[in-house]
Amino acid sequence: MNEIQHGSSDPIGAVDGHDVVSGKPIVPLGHHELRRADIDPKAAIRAERQVATMFSLSSLMIVSSIVAFIKVPNDTLVILPLFGPVNANHITVGSLLGLGIFLIGTGAIHWAKKLMPDVEVTEERHAFASSAEDKAAFGQAIRDGKAASGVGERKIIRRSLLGALALFPLPLVVFLRDLGPMPNKRLRETIWDKDIQILTDATYRPIRPEDIPIGGLVNALPANLLKIEEEDGNLNERGKASIILIRMAPADIVSQQGEGWDYQGILAYSKICTHVGCPISLYQQRTHHLLCPCHQSTFDLADSGNVVFGPAARRMPQLPITVNAQGYLVAASGFKEPIGPSFWERG
Amino acid sequence: MALSRRHPAAVFAVLAIALGTTGAAYAAVSASTAPKQVVKSATQVEQGKSLFLEGCSSCHGLAAQGSSDGPSLIGVGSAAVDFQVGSGRMPLAGPAVQAVSKPSQYSESEIAALAAYVASVGPGPAIPTQDMLKTDGADLALGGELFRTNCSQCHSVSGKGGALSEGRWAPNLMGADGKEMYEAMVTGPQNMPIFSDKTITVEEKQAIIRYLQELQKQESPGGAALGRLGPVTEGLFLFIVGLGALIVVAVWIGAKAK
What we know:
The complex is a heterodimer. Chain A contains 8 helices and 15 strands. Chain A is of the alpha+beta class. A 5-stranded antiparallel beta sheet of chain A has the order 5-6-7-8-13. A 4-stranded antiparallel beta sheet of chain A has the order 9-10-11-12, with no helix packed on it. In chain A, a hairpin with a 4-residue loop joins strand 9 (282-284) and strand 10. By secondary structure, chain B is mostly helical. Chain B folds into 2 domains: 33-127, Cytochrome c-like domain (Cytochrome Bc1 Complex, Chain D, domain 2), CATH 1.10.760; 128-217, Cytochrome c-like domain (Cytochrome Bc1 Complex, Chain D, domain 2). Chain B is built from 10 helices and 2 strands; from the N terminus they run H-H-H-H-H-H-H-E-E-H-H-H. The chains are: A alpha+beta, B mainly alpha.
């Protein structure tokens, strides 16, 4: 910290000691204006009392919050303007405790502003670079060390050390490999397969084609999911295999991902967005658009599930369906492409 | 100190007005009409036909077959008419991406006549009977599960509705009555898909309706629910009130003491 010498010349942006923009006089560095509490002992005492009042009020609030916590009923609603009905206990305890902590802060700041020394101090910047002597000394230390250790001449030591250092990261690779099983085909496959029955989600009933009117939507799951969940309670398969069934007039279908993958206008699509995997069934039956609420990716289910808007990079995978001998809807095969978001190995 | 203290105060005033307006808007609850039996008599169909020719045929065609201005009504059933006309969505006030709910233009008997006529041109979902709308014994937990599986994607988990694509939206269900909910599920108004009685049975629909009616009764013990829209309104509130308060405090801390 140094005293700054002030020259007669104006600082940049100033004319005749005035700011060029606002025209106000510029307070020169080193100029110090005294506060009322610095001049008038009465003002100092007043400020002292104000700070003490804030701290005392804070103590009162904090103790009151404990009393309120015990005494104010927490099954009563009180109506506050703007906030509406709120729990009497919560709002009282919260307000008292909040105010108590707030007053400690305001008291401390008021104390610092009014009574603590407020002398302006300046601190000069220093160059970041080391001095030339320091740099030379450092270089010399490295050279001395090299010469003393003889790393240049003792080739056998040097080579064995390099070998050890090169092998050092190897255990890390092996240990990290052990962190979990490789995904293998699990990202590419779901439990859907040929002749797997399609069930309604949440109620697990088989579905007949005539149950779905044109414009209808059914959130559905594969029947073999129930067995898997019973065995190991794993929700991953449910997350991957969720589908939606929709029905549109066959004439409205512009294209699908495979010949005859629909059943009389009933189409089955994955419910998992190809962007980052949100489950989506925001199906608009007149436009045939499927909207993802997370990032507004929009798929045209009348046209192969192609992306018509948003960040999704791939179409929504379609599941080929048909009916079984009993007349219930079943999958004609598994998904022909990976469902859900893209992944590294997908290519 | 050139900074005026009026700025933060103005922020609070604007916020108070905005919150008040939002509250008033949400307080507006649409009037509900009691479901009633539709007696299909020949004269009622005749009356419905003349009402249809007068008020609906310019868009939906002289024989309800539809035109470039409006879809065919053959097979939509009496439930669709009761929903669309009863909630004031039809007749449309003007071309729009979506019909909005407004006071109905027709009396109850006129709606019943229109419904009887449209039901006569092709079979479709009928107006639910009082019996179908009974929710006393409905399974509340099942209703919640079905709502979250089939409805919450568009109408939001709080039933407050939500945005769809191209300016469309799923309406707020907090003012809807049981009959409207039932009719919407079986007829699929506008862009809503149809949830037939085969894939979601009558009992399951009753469970969904009971769940929504329980949601409608929910208080907000945490104070202002801010529309129950989640992070959008809550974030805006914190942005204005929370950051506003921080700015006020920062200005006070930075102000030089006299």
